[in-house]
Inverse folding.
């Protein structure tokens, strides 16, 4: 019987992704400061025991996300934060992981306050019957959810359905890129005792205003819902 245990080989794609994530987290957390050089290709190869081909692909991905840039005879340099592609799902995930919760939610709350009331306002003017049915369906699934976990996806679907009802491709794209942050936000607000009792009436008010084609009420209802979300943050953070 052969008692020698073979060393587990990490698939190349998984290895590549894990290195991208590790370096990405180190960049957004400031371990690799802005405007400073990353380790060289040779150093990355040595540190992670990978080929130059894999190391170059890792750098290519980081460059494509705006976190770094590469120059001949200079190497790879960490970009300033205003160059990062913050709507990239990976970059956004790394920012969420490396930012204190209070700071992240303060930033995300501001983004939602700018975006969501206007989405509701526009949707009240542009939603078709089919759009409204999608929003209604998402709300009904929120009502019927037996657990907070079960209510999360319908809640996300509710907000995305409102964005889609604007029929504005850019607004829809932005909304979908923020789904990860929205999911994280809902996970936190769901920690508030009896959160559904607070949340459902707020969402219902948005739906009713859109059904009635009342854009001003839709905007106001969205602002009220976001204020309730802010109170939920404060109660659990």
């Amino acid at each position: 019987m052969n008692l020698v245990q073979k060393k587990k080989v990490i698939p190349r794609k998984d290895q590549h992704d894990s290195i991208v994530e590790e370096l990405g987290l180190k960049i957004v957390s400031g371990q690799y400061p802005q405007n400073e050089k990353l380790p060289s290709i040779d150093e990355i190869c040595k540190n992670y025991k990978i080929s130059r081909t894999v190391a170059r692909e890792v750098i290519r991905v980081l460059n494509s996300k705006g976190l770094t840039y590469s120059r001949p005879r200079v190497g790879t340099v960490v970009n300033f934060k205003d160059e990062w592609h913050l709507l990239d799902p990976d970059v956004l995930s790394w920012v969420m992981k490396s930012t204190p919760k209070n700071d992240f939610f303060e930033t995300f709350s501001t983004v939602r306050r700018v975006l969501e009331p206007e989405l509701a306002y526009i949707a009240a003017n542009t939603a078709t019957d089919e759009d409204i049915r999608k929003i209604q369906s998402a709300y009904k699934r929120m009502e019927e959810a037996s657990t907070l976990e079960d209510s999360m996806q319908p809640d996300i679907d509710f907000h995305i359905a409102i964005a889609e009802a604007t029929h504005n491709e850019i607004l829809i794209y932005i909304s979908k890129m923020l789904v990860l942050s929205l999911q994280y936000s809902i996970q936190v607000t769901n920690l508030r005792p009896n959160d559904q009792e607070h949340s459902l009436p707020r969402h219902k008010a948005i739906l009713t205003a859109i059904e009635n084609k009342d854009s001003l009420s839709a905007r106001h209802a969205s602002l009220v819902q976001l204020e309730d979300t802010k109170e939920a943050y404060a109660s659990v953070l």
The CA atoms of residues 44 and 50 lie 8 Å apart.
